[in-house]
Specification:
With 239 residues, this protein is α+β, with helices and mostly antiparallel strands. Strands 1, 2, 3, 4, 5, 6, 7 and 8 form an eight-stranded antiparallel beta sheet that branches. 31% of the residues are buried. Bound molecules: calcium ion (CA). The site of calcium ion has 6 residues, from strand 8.
């Protein structure tokens, strides 16, 4: 019995060692920031001016995400000649080391709600001159029967400077050069845009030594604990 308790203790030490600090390098700097929409959301799925940066993600109510009140609905009539609309976030001041953008959406094809085809990300320090920082395809299907919440993640290898970040979001069914295709494009529903900054927080020298050391102790403890349990069981079977 004593051995079993010791063995379980070792395994617990191992489990605790797995819960050691993980360094979160990306910070959401758009949380609570103001933004402007190029589109006019439909009255039933209107934007209150805060929904897209409030940190609240869309939920599923019954069988639907888009009706949950946490999404802004962009109808076909609100997209431009490229099939796009944009959300421009003002970070309040120029931020350095911007390395990520996330766009969250709903896709419910039977309700004519489609995932964006892609999101393109532009940055600016003055709100007038923008440069492209990245473009990511959603890869989402437009097939019937899809009900899901999705996200487009963009990560940059090198940090950029920005006060304004423009998310340009493309309707998947609009065909550029064929304006009549707008009649069949349905809706896009989005619930959050995030701008991520690398806060440069990397493990310090002390952490770099201590964490691997504690992890090693944990792994040895787990091995010893498991071995002790097996031996204990074997001994019991023999006696
Ligand atoms: Ca939100």
């Amino acid at each position: 019995m004593k051995k079993t308790i010791i063995a379980i203790s070792f395994i617990l030490i191992f489990a605790l060692s797995l819960a050691l600090p993980v360094y979160a390098a990306l910070v959401n700097v758009s949380l609570g920031m103001s933004y402007t929409l190029s589109a006019n959301p439909s009255g039933s799925y209107a934007d209150d001016g805060k929904m897209l940066t409030d940190g609240v993600h869309g939920t599923k109510v019954g069988e639907s995400y888009h009706k949950s009140g946490t999404y802004v609905g962009i109808p076909a009539t609100s997209i431009d000649q490229n099939g796009c609309f944009s959300v421009t976030v003002d970070l309040g001041e120029v931020k350095t080391d911007i390395t990520g953008f996330d766009l969250y959406y709903a896709c419910e094809t039977d309700a004519n709600v489609y995932a964006p085809e892609y999101a393109e990300f532009f940055v600016s320090e003055d709100g007038e001159n923008y440069t492209v920082a990245g473009k990511v395809m959603s890869g989402e299907s437009n097939d019937a029967g899809i009900i899901k919440a999705g996200v487009i993640n963009c990560r940059l290898n090198t940090g950029v400077k920005a006060r304004y970040v423009k998310f340009v979001i493309k309707n998947p069914l609009f065909i550029v050069g064929e304006p009549e295709s707008v009649a069949n494009v349905g809706w896009m529903f989005i619930d959050e845009v995030s701008v991520l900054r690398d806060d440069g927080k990397t493990p310090e020298m002390g952490d770099m030594l201590i964490i691997p050391l504690l992890n090693s102790i944990g792994i040895i403890s787990a091995g010893a604990g498991t071995f002790a349990l097996i031996m204990n069981k074997k001994k019991k079977q023999e006696s």
